[in-house]
Amino acid sequence: MELEKEIIGNHLQQIGNSILNHNTLGIIRISGGGTPVYANNTLLRLLNLESFTELIDTYNLNHLFRNNFNPQKYLKHIEQEFKSDFIESEWINKNGKVVFFKEFVQPVYNSSSVPEYFDCIIEDQTDKKIVEQLIKNCQTRDYQILKALPDILFIVSSEYVLLDCKFNSHSSFFKNPALLIGKKISSVFPKSVTEKLIDAINTTLKNNQLTSVEFSVAADDKEIFYEARIVVNYENEVLMLLRDITLQKEAEAQLRKVTEDLKQANASKDKFFSIIAHDLRTPLIGLIGYAEILSEDIDELETSEIKEYASNIVDISRQTIKLLSNLLEWSRLQTGKIQYNPADVKIHSLVNNIFQLLKSNAQHKEIELINSTDENHIAFADENMIYSVLNNLTSNAIKFTRVGGRIEVSSEIKGEEIVVTVKDNGVGIDEENLKNLFELDKSFTTPGTQNEKGSGLGIILCRDFIKKHGGKIWVESKVGEGTSFYFTLPLFHS
Predict the structure, then answer these.
(1) CATH of 130-244, one of 2.60.120.20, 3.30.160.100, 3.40.50.150, 3.30.450.20
(2) d(CA 187, CA 164)
(3) What is the per-residue pLDDT across 159-196, written as a single tens digit (0 to 9) for each?
(4) Strands (E), 137-287
(5) Which of 110, 115, 93 is nearest to 31 (CA)?
(6) Intra-chain end-to-end CA distance of the chain, in Å
(7) What's the predicted TM-score (pTM) here?
(8) Domain made up of 339-494: CATH architecture
(9) Where are the alpha helices (DSSP H) in 60-149?
């Protein structure tokens, strides 16, 4: 439990500067039972609350939600019964006023299939909702209300001519909107945008209802995003209200990244508990079983049986140590406790060290280990991390290579990178498993050619370590012919 808190806590700390302290995006963690666990200052401000303590002491989610808190709505959304990737909700602030939110919900699971928490990233939509209502009331041509809005209003004819313009601010694209009066939309906007606006205008005139469309234009070497809301003014005219939503789009992109990061953090936690619950517990049970037999029946056992049980204990102990080593490195990586210290690393020497470590494993299966790396190839890398990568890849190759097989590690320079290859002539990996090999939430484990065990964590660790170096790792394999893992490292320059 402490490691779980550390993983999630560290993750929130890593994204804190960009999201937790974001001045427009609210964050709240809600327990499955509807109790707020955490809220950032932005959400408190949106609800006119002074502190999280005030939220806990004075309110609950049934007070804050206009229609009461409903975790089932979150669950249905997560199960993709809703078409949108967000939930629109209505909350009530401290002053009793309704505020409109767009919620991006990410579940946090523990050991069960029911979410323990819901992490919600919230975007305030209250102003947008108010504007939508205001634009419907602008048909009297009383534009005084627009002085309070940072939008540009165009009156557009059914022939797509800009008849009038009211604005309270300029933008990098509309430097002087008044100069556009009398021009056709096609002479102001790019063709693709013109087509979108004309379609929206036609839809509005035909159905006599509010139509919204988003588009982007290039201005001052950057992309500017706008939302156009269009409503009928007279029979042959529409009002077109344009709002610059560039910052909103940037926030949404950042939000999607954070949502994915949260998903990865939760997957990491789930993987950790899976290993503790099964992959680590199973070999320990076997270890205890063999030890109990030797302890209780050693006087009745043949020498060959004693050797067999002792050998099994040694094999299980080695597997467990390797698993614990990977688990420790992986958890330290997730919590930011592994320091990245690149220096000059001689690949050939590192491979020799790995081969010496795994020599007995390979000899047990009569597997030939071949170091074909160039002695002059020097990478700029963290030696401990790359040692772990080569150890995991070579161990896996031994695991999935039959008796009498061969494993070769080679290297070549391509541009400013060294490409290292670990190749075996083992059983290979089928196409479906290849797709999921580097996915933490889809990782799997397969027994080796002599029923060796594993957790699937070693490959994930390799992926993360190579990513730390700015490199790539990939695999090619054919069932029955063997597997080749490739990874790149930056070249060392003296």
Answers:
(1) 3.30.450.20
(2) 16
(3) 999 988 877 666 777 777 778 889 999 999 999 999 99
(4) 152-157, 162-167, 211-219, 222-234, 237-244
(5) 115
(6) 46
(7) 0.45
(8) 2-Layer Sandwich (3.30)
(9) 61-64, 71-78, 126-136
